[in-house]
Amino acid sequence: MSTLSDFPISKRWPAQHPERIQLYSLNTPNGVKASIMLEETGLPYEAHLVDITENESHTPEFLALNPNGKIPAIIDPQGPDGQALALFESGAILMYLAEKSGRFLPAEPQARWATVQWVMFQMGGLGPMFGQLGFFHKFAGKDYEDKRPLQRYVAESKRLLGVLDTQLQGQDWIVGNDYTIADIATLGWVRNLVTFYEARALVEFDRYTQVAAWLERGLARPAVRRGLEIPSKG
Questions:
Q1: End-to-end CA gap in the chain
Q2: Residues 185, 174: contact at Cβ < 8 Å?
Q3: From the CA atom positions of the chain, what is the Rg in Å?
Q4: Coil, helix or strand for 8?
Q5: Rounded Cα–Cα distance for residues 230 and 154 (Å)
Q6: Domain CATH for 54
Q7: 79 within some domain
């Protein structure tokens, strides 16, 4: 496939601006990684709401773009060598957009790989654990006699917050004093933990003073505030 029109998803969610990056997403903690990054870089894009509560990410058109049926996903009509490029997995999208824009992923190898490892920390640890905690605390936990699943995810979430708190000692951002895709990957999940999942007291969030200050700095960025609302169900 080499042009936007070759992708089935472009029929279900038609592009008004086919020359721009097409974002298929919802403003979940994973979805906002892509929208915040696009807002931060200023790359031209068009957002399409994929309503996961209506199972739209499992339609044939979306599955043709991401067989895993998860948001976000993008198509860049101006991809490498002038060919349209489709990508899913939020971490891969962040790294691609960083490469394309030349921003938020250091060129110097030591800092570059430090950034990548903290993106992987979010992808493999913090996101999945916070998500399970939120599920058992806000949604399923009330229906289970056995409290051990919730206790397990509370304990692990606290441990991960402690790791992040230690990393942030003496610096503004996760990888030193430069804001990177490691911060963009993590902001939405930490925010969700204490807002949508209503787990602030449960994980004793205010003990992690470095994380709390970092979250406040991140949420003060105009592009982050915009990205957190894109695309929204309203």
A1: 33
A2: no
A3: 18
A4: coil
A5: 29
A6: 3.40.30.10
A7: yes
Q: Which long-range contacts (CB under 8 A, 24 or more apart) does 189-196 make?
A: 189/29, 189/122, 189/126, 189/127, 189/130, 189/131, 190/126, 190/130, 190/164, 190/215, 191/29, 191/215, 191/219, 191/228, 192/28, 192/29, 192/130, 192/134, 193/130, 193/133, 193/134, 193/157, 196/134, 196/138
In terms of domains, do 117 and 215 share one?
yes
Stretch (H or E) spanning 121: helix 109-121
Q: What pLDDT does residue 138 have?
A: 86
Q: Give residue 1's pLDDT band: very low, low, confident or very high (50, 70, 90).
A: low
Flag whether 226 is in a domain: no
Report d(CA 190, CA 175) in Å as an integer. Answer: 17
Same domain membership, residue 137 and residue 73? no
Whole-angstrom distance, CA of residue 94 vs CA of residue 87: 10
One domain, residues 98 and 49: yes
Q: Across-strand partners of 45? A: 21
CATH of the domain at 171: 1.20.1050.10
Count how many domains the chain has: 2
Neighbour order of strands in the sheet with 21-25: 45-49, 21-25, 73-76, 85-88
Domain housing 191: 109-221
Tracing tokens 């601006």 back to the chain, one arrives at: 17
- The answer to whether residues 14 and 77 belong to one domain is yes
In the chain, the amino acid numbered 174 is I
Is the entire prediction scored with pTM above 0.85? yes
Question: Of residues 72 and 139, which shows the higher confidence score?
Answer: 72
The last residue of one of the domains, among 104, 135, 152, is 104
| pLDDT, tens digit, 9 for 90 and up, residues 85-106 | 999 999 999 999 999 999 999 9
